[in-house]
Specification:
Blueprint: E1 8-12, H1 17-28, E2 32-37, H2 40-50, E3 55-58, H3 64-78, E4 83-86, H4 101-129, E5 132-137, H5 149-169, E6 174-181, H6 187-190, H7 194-202, H8 212-222, E7 234-237
Parallel strand pairs: 1-2, 1-4, 2-3, 4-5, 5-6, 6-7
Amino acid sequence: MARLSEHVAMVSGAGRGIGEGIARRLAEDGATVVCADVNIEAAQRVADACGGASSGLRLDVSDRVACDAAVAQVVDRYGRFDILVNNAGINRDAMLHKMTDAQWDQVLAVDLSGVFYLSRATARVMRERKRGKIVNISSASWLGNIGQANYAAAKAGVVGLTRTMSKELARSGVTVNALCPGFIETEMTNALPPDIHAAQLKKIPLGRVGKPRDVGNLVAFLASADADYITGEVINIGGGYQI
């Protein structure tokens, strides 16, 4: 029996990139995956690929009311909610002195507030059930990155939020961990100029760009019973990029 069979998971930002890789990997281990994304067509495409009773769901995580409704919808449809993966995120890069209020607000709304809204709604359900797994996708950029004051601040916030959530929810049997991907092959990284792409590759001791599945593999482990004694951790996954 697959280790996540009979489990229901929600992955935000599941329509492409890392989110898609995570959703597909959880499905391989038997989970029913709710693929949430602002692009419902993309979300449904991934849900179809996941198979079984997996479904697509349109969700803007920066909308607190929508997050509450999404969690309620999952519980109403499936009768349970076992795994939450907070992956949805956006970039609005600019140097600090050129960054607009809108660029700052948009990134914080999705990349940090969105994690809070969806986690808060999910925690209420998981506390009642006395079990659950929450995995937050932060970034290597939480340590600081030129041109990403908004993104770095949001991802650092995710780390702090993860540590606090893990302490608050541990007594309810809920584990909370954060992953910090390095340079992962996505539409965004593939669109980088060749010289920048090559420069980033040189920073990776393992000598290759990561795949969304690499992140999905670790999420699948943390979501399983094999990781029941792991909580509050911030785990780098970047082929040594963060060294």
